[in-house]
Amino acid sequence: MVDVAAIFKAYDVRGVVPDELDESVARAAGAAFVEVLDVLAGPGAVVVGYDMRPSSPGLAAAFAEGVTSTGADVVDIGLASTDQLYFASGRLQLPGAMFTASHNPAKYNGIKLCRAGASPVGAESGLRDIADLVAKSLTEPPAGVPVPGKVTRKNLLTAYADHLNELVDLTGIRPLKVVVDAGNGMGGHTVPAVFATGPVEIVPLYFELDGNFPNHEANPLDPKNLVDLQAKVREVGADLGLAFDGDADRCFVVDEQGDPISPSAITGAVAVRELAKHPGSSVIHNLITSKAVPELITEHGGTPVRARVGHSYIKAQMAETDAVFGGEHSAHYYFRDFWRADTGMLAALHVLAAVGEQDRPASEVFAKYERYVASGEINNRVDDPAATVAAIEDTYAGRDGVTVDHLDGLTVDAEEWWFNVRASNTEPLLRLNVEAGDAATMARVRDEVLALITGAPVEEN
Questions:
Q1: Percentage of the chain surpassing pLDDT 90?
Q2: Last-in-domain residue among 243, 261, 279
Q3: Which tens digits make up the pLDDT trace of 348-374?
Q4: Do residues 269 and 247 both lie within one domain?
Q5: Closest by alpha carbon to 242, among 290, 275, 206?
Q6: Residue 424 catalytic?
Q7: Start and end of every Alpha-D-phosphohexomutase C-terminal domain (predicted)?
C-alpha cells in the first residue's frame, strides 16, 4: 500500500514511480482535488499539463479520469512547463495540476497543484485534506457519477509565449547570443516559442525532451550541471547563458565568462526593473536571499517584505501586500503580472533586457547587485535537528550586537554577517546559509556553525 502521507509534501506531491506514486494514486488525487476545491460548485473544470518524463502522460491521464469521475471537466494542455500550466490556470481561471518532479532524478514524478488564477495549494490550504481523501479512497473507492465530465484538449503554448513577450519587449535591444541549456527538460519546449522573434540568437544545449536526462540532471542548482553551459558560453563567445530545471520554472544565469550570477543578484536586478515601472511597490524576498536585496529595494523606493522559504508563503505574502515581484535564493521568481506565480522564463527575459539595453557585458551589468560573500546552502544530516538548532541559538543569543529570529528556522544576524539554519521538511537535514561582507568573515562564521552542527572542532588558521 502506498504511504500517501510520505509523498504529499508541504507544497506538492512527489515520489518514486511506481513504488510511491502510481496511476491509482493520481486517479484518487484527481477526484479528491475536485472535492476539496469544490470545483463542481465553481469553475466546473480543471486544467492539466505534464512534462517529458516517461510516466507523466499516464499519470496525467489517470488524474483526468479521477476529475471526470466526479462530473467535472478537464482542459488538457498536454506537454507544458510548470509556468505554462500557471499561465493556463490564470488565463482560463481554472484550478490546475502539473505532472512533474521538477529537478529530481528520472525515477521520480509528482504533482504541483494550484487553485484558479494560479493561487497556491499548500499543506494548510488544501493539500493535507487532499492527501487524507486519497488515502481513504485507495481502500474505499468512491462511486462515480452517472454522467462523467469530458476532456478537451487545448494548445496554449503560443498564447503563453505572447503573454511573456508583452510583459518584456526585447525587440529594441541590441543583438545577443545566448546559450540555453534545457537539460532535456521542458525548456526545450518553451524556449523556441518564447524567442521565436526578436534579436536573440539562441545556441541550444540539450533541447531534446527526454525524461531520462541522458546528459545531466536538470538541476542547475548543483554546480556540476552548469559545466556544459559554461563551456559552451566561452566556446561560442556568447553574451550570457541560461539554464532551466526540468519543468522550466526556474532559471539560472551565467555571464559572458561562464561565471554564475547568483539568484540574489537576479532578484535585485529584476526588483529594480519592476520598481522603475511600478514606483513605491512592495517586493518580496525570502530570508535566504542576500542582504543586498532589501537594500536595493529600499534604495529604489520600494518596500522590502521578508518571507519564509517556499512558494505558498511567497504567493500568500504577494497577495497580502500586492507586491509587484518576489524572488527566492533557489531561482524561483514571482510576478504580479503573472498571477503572482513563479516563472523562470519571465525572469530570463528581464535578464536579457537588462543586458541588451546597454553596451556593457553581463558581468559588469550584474556586478553592482553582488555586494556580499555567501556560502551557498550547505546540508548536513543530523539525528535531532531541533536540538541542534537550539544548541546553536544558545551559543549566539545574547552576544553583543546579535539578534535572532524564528521566521523560518533560526536566523542569527550581526552587523557584518548573518546566517540561517533550518530543518528540511522531508529529511533529517539542517540547511545552513551564511553571508558576510568579506570572504574571511564568511568562512569563519560558516566553520563555527558547521562545528556546532557536526560536532567537529573548528580548525585554527
A1: 86
A2: 261
A3: 999 999 999 999 999 999 999 999 999
A4: no
A5: 206
A6: no
A7: 377-451
